[in-house]
Amino acid sequence: MNFIDLMKKRRSRYQLTNSLPISDEKLQEILADCIMQAPSAFNVQSARVVLLLGERHKKLWEIVLRSLRDIVPTDKFAPTEEKIASFAAAYGSILYLDDASAIHELQTKFPTYADNFPVWAQQANGMLQFAVWTALAEAGVGASLQHYNPLIDERVKKEFRLPATWQLIAQMPFGQAVGADKEKTYLPLSARLRVENK
Question: Is the CB of residue 171 less than 8 Å from the CB of residue 153?
């Protein structure tokens, strides 16, 4: 399958089961390859990944649920609880983070670009997320990308003993996808692609 076909295969999959069509070893191999090959500005390699399996995966979504319970009104909480339960029902989760100390080091070394390094680090992390998501889709693993930060940041850092300089960016529940892909909609290409040749 070529790269364009792989991109077409990647989808947000929300109905996930607690099983995988690949081994944990293959899963870790996919993550390792993507981490090593995803590009980053100035080769800073500031992206960090934490793979959560079993009870550690479930603990993440307990933290999310507890954090949301603090801010969502009780009478409106049922849909929120159902959504988080669907993520907890998956096989595992991937945390995507950036190490601020690596970014700060570049800011000190190249002060002219200091304001750009956090932006470039976010872009690099996004490329890593896309690479992992696409590689998982190729392996038959469904996933979606979630963003419950900064609401859960401190609790997640404490629970998983993460360094203070690691900043949470996204969470990716994954597992065996159930059901068919939803039809993807697109804006007209003319609104998104402009060609200047004269």
Answer: no
Cα→Cα distances 61→2, 33, 46, 160, 193, Å: 35, 26, 25, 13, 39
15-30 pLDDT per residue, tens: 999 999 999 999 999 9
Largest CA distance in the chain: 60
Let me know if 155 is exposed, middle or buried by CB neighbors in 10 A (0-12, 13-18, 19+): middle
Q: What is the pLDDT of residues 112-151, one digit of tens each?
A: 999 999 999 999 999 999 999 999 999 999 999 999 999 9
CA angle, corner 107, sides to 105 and 110, nearest 5? 105
Residue 188, both tokens = 């007209």
What are the pLDDT digits (tens) for 143-181?
A: 999 999 999 999 999 999 999 999 999 999 999 999 888
Distance from C-alpha of 3 to C-alpha of 80, rounded to nearest angstrom: 35
